[in-house]
Amino acid sequence: MSNWVTIRGRRLSFQVPRRTIAVLAALFLVNVIVMIACIGFGSTFISPLAVIRSLLGIGDSSNDMIIFTLRMPRVVIAVMVGSMLAVSGALLQGIVRNPLTSPDVIGISGGASLGTIVFILYFSHVSIRFMPISSIAGAFGAALLIYLFAYRGGITPLRLVLIGIGMATALTAVSYMLILTASFTPTAVAVKAFTFMTGSIYGVSWTKDVLTLLPWLVVLMPVALIYARHLNVQELGDEVAASVGSSVNAKRTMLLFVSVALAGAAVAIGGTINFIGLMAPHIARKLVGPAYGGVIPVSALIGSLVLLLSDLVARVAFIPLDIPAGVFTAAVGAPFFVYLLYRHRHS
Amino acid sequence: MNNLLRTSPQKTAGLVIGIFVLLVCIVSSIVFGVADIKWRTVVDSFTAFNGSQEHLIIRTARAPRAFIAAIAGAALAVAGALMQGITRNPLASPSLFGINAGAAFFIVAASAFFGASGLSAFATLGFIGAAFTALLVYVLGSIGKDGLTPLKVTLAGASMTAFFSSLSLGVLLTGGQTFDQVLYWFVGSVAGRDMATFNSAAPYMGAALLGSFVLARHMNLLALGEDVATGLGQKTVFVKMGAAVVIVLLAGGSVSIAGPIAFVGIIIPHVTRYLVGIDYRWTLPYCAVLGGILLLAADIGSRYIAFPKEVPVGVMTAILGVPFFVYIARQGGRAHE
After folding, report:
1. Domains of chain A from N-terminus onward
2. How far apart are the first and last CA of chain A?
3. CA of A320: which chain B residue's CA is closest?
4. Where exactly are the transmembrane stretches of this chain (chain A) (predicted)?
């Protein structure tokens, strides 16, 4: 029996290792179980069976309201935001060829959150559908600045990361300043903006958040999957990639575009949730090896799992208080980062 | 060396001018604000206190604020200079190493979970938190064969900052703190402090500043390289330990009275090296004076940038600091050149 499964289509065909399929299936199952658990837990406990009955449309009508208007949107957003951040991080690590980067470490998320805050404060009369555009514009602005500052006859990963970290701090400071100086900001809005900057998916709704984020997810994710193979060849080095016929710069620009847009859109809804973009790709590589065709989807599922669990703890551990999920992703992510530093100590 | 001031008389004159500017900044900090106060009134409030409202504002709000800004700025700048010397890393500073965030977290967590209160407890906790985080980041940044590289230590510091400030936020939100308090423990601010706050940490910080001037001679030797210093008879371990204690007192103390203010420890040592070169006997006093001036000036500016609202001074220093950061990072993370 071959270790590969070959899928042939008319335009696109690819080989997938069996192991990747097994991992994807297992992760998918775990995701579903955790989603059901997330829907069940809360100030009112709903048993898993009752959750499944409600989802199938044969449940108790008193549960339906809690499940469909309060908890479901939040779970769906956790899946969407978590997977987008994870894929963005996986692409970025491949582009920069540095395993210690992620959109939040090098300031792209900071730019996106600045864009979002500008939107919240000054464009509140515009439809919320445009909020991701503002965030993505912020993310691109930040990425461009970081790139320009880091460019000195070329880009080294070291300079990019260092300057990114500095920019992240500065962008956060500018966001604080905007929040505090907007003369019309009542304290409640300021607190909301502040919570947003730590990353929270509190109080999301179908129409406002899920529908706003969905188009970006639907467009960007497949592009990420299709372009993943270009990362494989780029990992070999620019010269090798060019000599085997890959248009390195064009592909890299496209990959960077997708990565930044994914992070920007995710931040628009979920705020700057730290460390998912860093952690998920590493766990994915541990599970399915370094080929990006497998890393991208597995990262997405792991990212969603991490955010689901973080948000569950954030929501349930201190009832009735609702802690931003970003607090818990950081609590898990920082030790993970330490582990990464330790593991890469010889490289 | 390409520094601006070369001879000793020039440097002395520069330092005297610096101290004069520092004093002017302290007085300006007391005078300017939402309620402008006359210079004469400031002097009167200390020489002939009459209990009037203006005198009360000066003695309970404006003066402590000015003193705290001055000493916190001085402490952060000197701590930054010492850290850059010991780690041989031009980006080392209390904020980037996560020391500020760590100290803030220890204070926040201890007051929430163990009921720690009172200013002296805050100062002690600040020291413990600063020591713990400094050690942690140092060890993390030194993992591996190539030792303490700027990249690793910056990444370790950045991740520890994210870690500790997220935890602080969690603790603060579960404790139902006000927005002002949250902000204070996040970006640092010198507003709304009283004289008791200043007194709680100032003695330690003052002692640590003096201690750093004593260390200056030994730091010069250490800067030649560990081997050379050992060869010349220096017990490098003691010098490093002494410097570590000074750094912890300075950073922990400034966090306990002003919160985690960023970038002062990066900006000032670099400006100072440009002015007077790399002799620590000059750079450390210059750092102290210029650090105080920077934080006072940033604080005065923070009152006017969105008048009559105030912006925490930590926000101002973060924005001011980035051009320096970018410049240093573009130099490839090398010091002094």
Report:
1. 19-38+66-343 (1.10.3470.10)
2. 37
3. B174
4. 21-52, 72-92, 104-124, 130-151, 158-178, 184-203, 210-228, 254-279, 291-317, 323-342
